[in-house]
Specification:
zinc; about 160 residues; two-stranded antiparallel sheet; chromatin regulator; 2 strands; 2 domains; extended; mainly alpha; SAGA-associated factor 11; nucleus
Length: about 160
Amino acid sequence: MSSSDAPLSPRSQLALSCFEELLDCAVADVASECHRIARLGLDRSVDAEEEELRVWAARAAAGADHHHPGGGGAAEEGGAGGGSKGGVDVFGQTHPAIAADVIECMNCGRPVVAGRFAPHLEKCMGKVNQSTTVAGHFGSRLPDIVRFVPCIPFN
């Protein structure tokens, strides 16, 4: 927008609107292309950055092994993309591989460890393997009055 408070003519508003639309499209195009290149591994500079991350993770794992004997540094180095689950974060704090906070499931009321909450919720709400969960738990989800109504044959 311009710095003056004067209203823009309809032609100027249209030109500004077209310019903003073109700019948005250009930015989105560049961003999606950069994401595609990085995702497919076509950019060599990304490989260098990933190698630096692996070296940093190896140093962090070596430091964790020094403080925690038998800490499994090789398992952390071979992890998913240089991640440091159970290792040391950028602030030097160690975190468990699975979050240990206990959360109560709002669907069934059972206590669940935070690191396993999403898979539990999928199972609890019946989103996983519909063929087996529906067959196995169909009767348990119905109210008692519906479950125990005798079947009356129709003539």
